[in-house]
Amino acid sequence: MRNAEWRAIKSQGGFTLIETLITLVILSIAAIGVLSVFTTGIRISANPVVVDQAVQLAQEKMDTILGDSLNSNPGYGFAYIIPGNYGAETPVTGFAGFNRSVNIYCVTVADLTTNAGAPGVGGCASGYTHVAVTVANAAIGSVKLETVITNH
After folding, report:
1. How confident is the model at residue 56, as a pLDDT?
2. Pairing, β 98-107 against β 128-137
3. In angstroms, how far apart are the furthest CA atoms of the chain?
């Protein structure tokens, strides 16, 4: 009977204490490796609030420029959209960490990406003005908003 009992106990199998400890050590090392990737990604990812503020600041300036292009008062309208009317803001008033700049230049109909020079007081001879508003922040880099305005 003693032999039969010993075989029954031996056949039940399972993990020894050493096997369990080795498994826990290996799983811990693997978990640390996986978690370090996630924590690094979270740490270097852009803050969505800062990105949203940058986009809103760019949109605000673009809306101002588009509004000026539609203004029919003397001295305004399409002829008003010239670089001298929209200076760089370093920093943007009320937003200490943000800088905003505006680039305005004439483009031709054939190639709307070609810089044909800055518009003068009378606007662009081609009738197309490329406007780019860039908002920069140290935490996220820069956000750029672009459009083409026409006087047709």
Report:
1. 95
2. antiparallel
3. 113
